TrEMBL record:
Name of the protein described by the UniProt record: CRISPR type III-B/RAMP module RAMP protein Cmr6
Coiled-coil ranges per UniProt: none
GO biological process: defense response to virus
CRISPR type III-associated protein domain mapped to chain residues: 87-247
Keywords recorded for this protein, A-Z: Antiviral defense
Signal peptide: none
PANTHER family: CRISPR SYSTEM CMR SUBUNIT CMR6
């Protein structure tokens, strides 16, 4: 059986790929979610890819930078951060997927990214965990039920095309014990390996747009937003499995217009 016969696709799509390797496709979102081989273990056979496949998406990233320049030209304060992960990053693991494990990918270009609401959540949750949510400046920056926040956290895309999407594995033992089929975590219970996708060697751009002048200098519980962000990404991390060290790293402010 050929590779294309193991994938449920419309007949015209099968005809298009008849003489091609389906893993040469540039849109990783299609490869992951639409071209899934249904006769094999769909988590064990997760596709991997290096960033050279995303070469056509670099122009899209440059367009985002053009958008940033437009905000600046209209008088908005903008801060630019670089996030370098110390380890692998797992974003969107729990989203719906035909493979039961997923990854956050751009719906058109297929490139991995961190949604703006995830960036905002990383920072706000860290401040809350440190007891700063009652500060009025916290509500001013992040908003509340009655008011919108005065800072926009944009979606974050890779800074360069030198990253990799690779498989990782979690291998829970004592499956019967955890599913309450057995009273004890005995050694004769078979492990249940689960594969998932991670980002390796990736550097992200993170942009913040301030809708109110001088708001970047406000302090929340004695610290500026920049200080809180650096702490949040270093110790809290972004994405899933942060308690195991995934998604933590160094956040650096590289530019901001005054």
């Amino acid at each position: 059986m050929t590779q294309i016969q193991r994938i449920k696709l419309p007949s015209d799509t099968c005809s298009f790929f008849k003489n091609q390797n389906i893993y040469d496709i540039e849109n990783f979102n299609l490869l992951l979610n639409k071209y899934a081989e249904f006769e094999d273990n769909m988590t064990r056979n997760l596709p991997e890819i290096d960033s050279s496949k995303f070469s056509s998406c670099i122009q899209f990233i440059k367009k985002q930078r053009y958008l940033i320049e437009r905000y600046k030209s209209q008088g908005y304060d903008v801060d630019t951060y670089i996030f370098r992960s110390d380890s692998r990053i797992v974003v969107g693991l729990g989203q719906e997927s035909v493979r039961e494990v997923s990854m956050t990918l751009h719906w058109i270009y297929g490139i991995p990214y961190i949604p703006g609401q995830a960036v905002k959540g990383v920072v706000s949750n860290w401040i809350i965990s440190e007891g700063g949510e009652d500060d009025e400046n916290f509500k001013l920056i992040f908003g509340d039920e009655d008011n919108k926040g005065k800072v926009i956290f944009l979606d974050s895309y890779p800074e360069n095309n030198r990253f990799y999407i690779r498989k990782d594995i979690m291998n829970p033992h004592y499956t019967d014990y955890y599913t309450k089929k057995d009273f004890y975590p005995t050694d004769w219970q078979d492990p249940n390996p689960i594969f998932f996708l991670t980002l390796e060697r990736v550097v992200f751009n993170i942009y913040l747009i301030y809708l109110k002048k001088d708001i970047r200098y406000l302090k929340i519980a004695g610290k500026t937003l920049e200080e809180w962000m650096i702490e949040a990404f270093k110790y809290g991390g972004v994405g899933a499995k942060t308690s195991l060290g995934y998604g933590t790293g160094q956040l650096t402010l590289i530019g901001g217009n005054m």
